[in-house]
Amino acid sequence: MDPPAFDESMPTGGNPLEVDVNAQYSGFEYHYIYLVFCGFIVWLIIPGLGFLYGGLSRRKSALAMLFQSLLVAAVITFQWMFWGYSLAYSRTAGPFIGNLAHFGMIKVGFAPSIGSPYIPDLVFCLYQLLFCACTVMIVVGGSFERGRIIPSLVFGFFWATIVYCPIACWTWNPNGWLYNLPSLDFAGGGPVHISSGWSALAYAFVLGKRKHQGEKSYGKPHNVSLVFLGTMFIWFGWFGFNGGSGLNGTLRSMLAVFNTNTAASCGVLGWVLVDYIKHRRRFSIVGACEGAIAGLVGITPAAGYVSVWFAALIGFLTAIVCALLQDINKWIRIDEGLDVFKLHGIGGMMGSFLTGIFATSSISSLDGATLASGGIDGNGIQVVKQLAEITAISAYSFVVSCALLYILGYIPGLHLRVSNEVESMGMDLDQFFDEQIGD
């Protein structure tokens, strides 16, 4: 049975008062029902990041990270409906960015989407909205314990517009230049992780180092239980993140879910092994959580392209590399306290590179349509294409993020950083009602 076809004469899928807009998906409902379910669990990544970042913060600055996870979801929902979806996924996009054909959700309805003919536009739009919100929340980690909340949210809105949306267009829009190169990115190694890692590094670089290095709590998580809880939310949400990125309910998507769990588990093992050797046979719960996230990041671009044992290897190697770079902030002299660059930037680059090596068409073809080969099939040039993706996204994200932050810093009322006094006493007391903060 052929999939539904997009009809330019009915860009919204038809008038529901005149036709049954559900009829075109008869027999294919399981595809979009599956994607809706994946979207529900992807949403959990957003509060998961709030818990993770809040647990890693000092107690007197933890609420700022929790609060921003909620506000980022709200701001990016508006941004995506306003123009974000159109800039990333308009059907008439150029190779670098879309246009405003869907500005304000114009013509976004029940017709087959640009991502998959099995998925209605509205479902695809919601799913991709959650990707954007997760990415912006990752970037916000660069403001750790010294970035003001309102400028951070303004930055998130414009960062999504001029950084995330163009990169998503490059990578996933059929008109995008990386899509047609092609680089292989199943679920967001470039648009989500490489871009957020480099942008968080830019955020920390522009803000400068924290001033409370002499305090006893400097660099120590105030609540390891929150770190653990946040990591579990993220791990669970990643099943939808990777599992839904095939935009169908085929066996390829099921394998992507299995690969996700495999890589995260092997990431835990890799990081714990490094900690065990470095710290004289002692363990770290935070380290194990970081290992899980490193494994999840590493497998993101590869989940629908590699076999389960290569997924295990990708998760294990990514976690080991990230764990061995524990002191990278000291080496580059940038105070990026939440390790966003290390886990997402470096982890994303590792995953994208290894995707080029281990991708095989025997896995991608499990959806019945995709033939994507990599180095393991003898397609060595794919590694070069992956390096092109890594280089372009890294450079664009860092440079544009720095420029945007410097511009915002000169706008009255949007100075990026709190005062030294506020940083010392904690952001929560300064930016929230006193009655909400316990002693």
UniProtKB/TrEMBL annotation:
It holds the Pfam family Ammonium_transp. This is Ammonium transporter. It comes from the Eukaryota. PANTHER family: AMMONIUM TRANSPORTER, AMMONIUM TRANSPORTER MEP2. The keyword Membrane applies. Its main location: membrane. Belongs to the ammonia transporter channel (TC 1.A.11.2) family. Keywords: Ammonia transport, Membrane, Transmembrane, Transmembrane helix, Transport. GO terms for cellular component: plasma membrane. It is a multi-pass membrane protein. GO terms for molecular function: ammonium channel activity. It is found in: Cell membrane; Membrane. The keyword Transmembrane helix applies. It comes from Endocarpon pusillum (strain Z07020 / HMAS-L-300199) (Lichen-forming fungus). PROSITE patterns: AMMONIUM_TRANSP (PS01219). Residues 35-432 form the Ammonium transporter AmtB-like domain. InterPro entries: Ammonium/urea_transptr, Ammonium_transpt, Ammonium_transpt_CS, NH4_transpt_AmtB-like_dom, RhesusRHD. The chain crosses the membrane at residues 32-56, 63-83, 118-141, 153-173, 193-210, 222-241, 253-274, 283-300, 306-325, 386-408.
